[in-house]
Automatic annotation (TrEMBL):
CDD domains recorded: IgV_MOG_like
Coiled coil: none
A cellular component annotation (GO) from this entry: external side of plasma membrane
Protein's recorded name: Butyrophilin subfamily 1 member A1-like
GO molecular function per UniProt: signaling receptor binding
Lineage: Eukaryota, Metazoa, Chordata, Craniata, Vertebrata
Compartments in which it is found: Membrane
Amino acid sequence: MKKEVSFFVSPSASPSLPGCIALLIALQVHRLVAAQFRVIGPDQPVVVSVGAVAVLPCRLSPATSTESMEVRWFRSRFSSVVHLYRGGRDQPGEQMQEYVGRTQLLKDNISSGSVSLRIHGVRPSDHGQYTCFFQAGVSSEGTLLKLQVTALGSDPHVSAEGHQDGGIQMVCRSAGWYPEPEVQWRDHRGQLLPPASEKMFTDTAGLFHAEVSVVIMAESNQNVTCAVRSLFLNQEKTATISIAGHFFPRVSPWMVALAVIVPIMLVVIVLSFCRAK
């Protein structure tokens, strides 16, 4: 932010040495106040796993001591304080409750304008944008950074839940993912199988749990795979299961014969009864 300052010298006033010195000092002070600094952060998101320590880099250019400046790290609003340094000390009383005791301003290079923020025990709720903001007098500047939180969940657990529509219903479950994963059922050729049902929910920690079912038919190849993938990390975990043919519901030939013969006999009986009348 730049403050405009103007100076007026009367035409009738004769310049004097003290006046010239005062004017030069005023112009120099104005130049210093109006000087702009840039705040520099990473161009790419900072990627950190759940439970790990995140370091968000931030520095001034040109390199300038920030010991006497206000350094504010905040989220979506100026008042959503993640960490505040003012008056030469940290101000923990200004922080949002969820960051109390979890942040640290790295001051080793504060004299050269570097004030990276360390966040301990990263949570899914820490995911998103942060602003690194400096203020020195009437001059202020900031920059946006993004923290990308990730978590690879558990290996898929596959179980048979019973017979359905002439096949076997298989359910794939996996927990502890962030962000939301993609879940696929595939046959032995790698072709996708249409899911019978899909459930995705988060636990109290904000991690995603997946539960996706599929119905495997007897005429299909019984080797099937459940794959749970993190699209951001481009990593997946899989579980493959082979279903023996005798587990599929079978119709006895006698049952087929009865299904054909009984309706015919009923028709014959009804016709005979009608003729007898």
